[in-house]
Amino acid sequence: MPDPRRPSRLAAGIFLSLALAQASPAQPTRTETVPAPALVAGTILKGTLQGDESRIYAVDGAAGQTLSVDLQTSNASLSFTVLPEGSQEALFDASTSGPVADIPLPAPGIYLVQVHLMRSAARRAEGARYALGIGLAGADLADGLAGGPDWWQVSGIREGALNVRSGPDARYGVVGKAQNGELAQNRGCRMTGPARWCSIRVAGSGLQGWVAGRYLIEGAAPAAAEVPEGGPKGNGVPFDAAGTARCAQAPDAALGPCPFGVVREGPGRAGVWIALGDGTERAILFEGGLPVSADAAAPLSFSKEGDLFTITVGAERYQFPEAVMNGG
C-alpha cells in the first residue's frame, strides 16, 4: 500500500491544478484530493458541471496498483481523462475508450482524474450531473481480477433473474436480465468498492453489460451454432444462431431457401448474414428491433406482418421471423 499521505506531492498537484485554472480563466477548475481510506474502500463522488467548468480528483497511487474509475451521467458529452501529475499525456480518455477505466499505474505518484464536458458541449454552456466511482486496488488483487475463465455461468439467483446493468455498480440502469444457468462470455472483472463486477456478453441473446460477480461460476463454452452447408462466414465473430431464411435475387423470382447466420448484440440489435449462393453474402443490420441498413448501394425497405419481416434491398427480397434477431 502507498503512504496514505505525501503532503509535498499532493500540494504540488493542487498547485499545478490551481495554476492551470488561473492561466485559463475561461475554464474554471476545482481540485479535490481523494483520501486514501476512501480509495481503498471505493467511493462515489457526485457533482455538477456547467460549460467550461471541470473537476480534478487527485489520487496518490503506487506502481502496480489498479486505479478504477467509472462515470455515470445523463449527458453523453460529459467525459473524463486520467493522467499523471505534471504530464499532458493521458493514460485514459473516456471520450474514446468508454466510461469505465481500470488502469495499472506505471509508477508511484499523484494521478489526476479530470471530469469535463467535451468542447462542443462546453461551448453550448451545457450542464451535467454526475456520479464518479473511484477506487484503488492492490497489485495482487488486480492480477486476480485479470484472469478467470473464458465463460461464466449464472448461478445462485433465488428469485427472478440477474440484473445486467450498463455499468459496474448498482447505481447504473438495468439493460436486461440473465437467468440461472445461462452462459456468458467473460469480458473482464473489476472491483467497485468492496464488490466484484464483471463485464459479460450473454450467449445466444448477445446481451452485454455488467453483473455482480458473486452470481457467476465458471462455465463451459456453449456449442457453436451449426451453419448450414454453403452458409455465410460473417465478420469473423461466431454466430449466435444459424438456420435457413427465404430469399430471392430478382423481383419476379420465387422465394427459396438461403442459409443465414446472426450475431446478436442485445435486445433489438443484430447483424444477419445471408449466403446468396454464388459465394457472396448480404449483411443486414438491425437497430431498435428494425432493419436499418445493408451492405449494398441499393436502398433498403421492409414490411412486417405478425413476427415475419420481409426485407427488400434493391431487387433482392429476404424473409425471416423476428426471432432470428432476438432469439427465442
TrEMBL record:
<protein>
    <submittedName>
        <fullName>SH3 domain-containing protein</fullName>
    </submittedName>
</protein>
<dbReference type="Pfam" id="PF08239">
    <property type="entry name" value="SH3_3"/>
</dbReference>
<dbReference type="InterPro" id="IPR003646">
    <property type="entry name" value="SH3-like_bac-type"/>
</dbReference>
<feature type="signal peptide">
    <location>
        <begin position="1"/>
        <end position="26"/>
    </location>
</feature>
<feature type="domain" description="SH3b">
    <location>
        <begin position="161"/>
        <end position="216"/>
    </location>
</feature>
<keyword id="KW-0732">Signal</keyword>
